[in-house]
Input
Amino acid sequence: MSRKETLDEIIEEELAELELEEVETFDDYLEMIMTFGYITLFASAFPLGTTITSLFIYLETKSDMFKFERTARRPFSKKCHDIGTWEIALDILTIMSVFTNIVLCCYASDQIDYILPWLKGMKEDSSTNLLTIFGIEHVMVFLVGLLRVTLNTEPRWLRIFRERRAFKSVKRQEREGLIKQKAE
Output
């Protein structure tokens, strides 16, 4: 096969791909957020659900690969620094899951009685129930927030890269006369 025939074949494949349906990433994000919600909100009610969901996520990954390779146009890449409002949705689900799992684990079942036997006597009175739920929930939300702050630090190399890029941008703008140079 000659070089021209190869190029013509590649061009035909690319033109055929342009006729395919465009991929909607919103649906894929929504599906992952819903899966995360099911896993985290009801983890204590059905612990085997995480394993089963992992299997389905693996199968979903394979079907998405097929979709991207055969039946849909490749999505256009866009530069972004985070996942946008989806991060807020994940944060809300995380806080809600703390509360639902505490209620399910402590008061809707006897799972916690073996770990914290002193809570067994507090299940009798509804006001004590609520105070205990909110107390444990506040402690857990504080721990989630603390982990979020401590583990959400920017790596040193990334901070240096961003500072360097900002410095180069300022210097380029100074050279081009877009901003005034600092007086030394």
In short: The chain has a mean pLDDT of 81. Helices lie at 3-18, 25-41, 48-71, 85-106, 126-151, 156-175. Strands lie at 21-22, 72-73. The two ends are 65 Å apart (CA to CA).
